[in-house]
């Protein structure tokens, strides 16, 4: 067991399509297996005492994928909530969907709201699922909200003013960002919040990610010297 468990882990769950392609399957087969990998990762995080887990499930750019794939992902979000909310509740997990939720169907939005409300008093792992999310869109939305706030002093905006209007307001910044499938990019994920995160990239495709891979990432994180711009 790694010595120090990061309080907040963010994950870019990449490689579902490649996992499927390698097996001669359509991308949706990878997403289906990706949902199982997420379930395993959530369970593992709850077990080892991670406080916050933030995952990138659907980006503002993902609407541009083939219609069947987008439709499948929407159905998968719906079914996963129907299937898993009870178990998340038993495990004391609090769930938040964060992003521009208004673009989803009324039915999906209602289900997200209902699931979040059901789990809102839980005190264990905080699971943040970023959907229709873009880091730049989030900063734009934060500024919009900030500029409309009655207490604003325009000449004196601070970093915490911006943090406090992001979708993640009140949640500490991630300590560790894990990206699967070997891509060395941030891809518009948590642009503000990742300022000082340690980045861990693994060649493992997301559907093959699970507790052993999570522990490996945390072990690597333990070797890093975090300086936050200081000289140590
Ligand atoms: C990236 O793989 C993955 C996505 C765009 C979707 C992530 C969704 C899941 C893991 C499904 C489960 C989520 C929930 C909340 C139930 P990719 O398709 O871009 O992979 P590729 O780059 O290999 O094509």
TrEMBL record:
Catalytic residues, per the record, are 14, 62 (proton acceptor)
- Enumerate the Gene3D superfamilies for this protein: Decaprenyl diphosphate synthase-like
Positions with a binding annotation for substrate: 15-19, 31, 59-61, 63, 65, 179, 185-187
Short name of any one Pfam family annotated for the protein: Prenyltransf
The record's Gene Ontology biological-process terms are: polyprenol biosynthetic process
Single Gene Ontology MF annotation: magnesium ion binding
Q: Which InterPro entries match?
A: UPP_synth-like (IPR001441), UPP_synth-like_CS (IPR018520), UPP_synth-like_sf (IPR036424)
For this UniProt record, give its keywords in alphabetical order, as a comma-separated list.
Magnesium, Metal-binding, Transferase
User: Which coenzyme or cofactor does it need?
Assistant: Mg(2+)
User: Which protein is depicted?
Assistant: Isoprenyl transferase
Whose protein is this, by species? candidate division WOR-1 bacterium RIFOXYC2_FULL_46_14
Q: How is the cofactor bound?
A: Binds 2 magnesium ions per subunit.
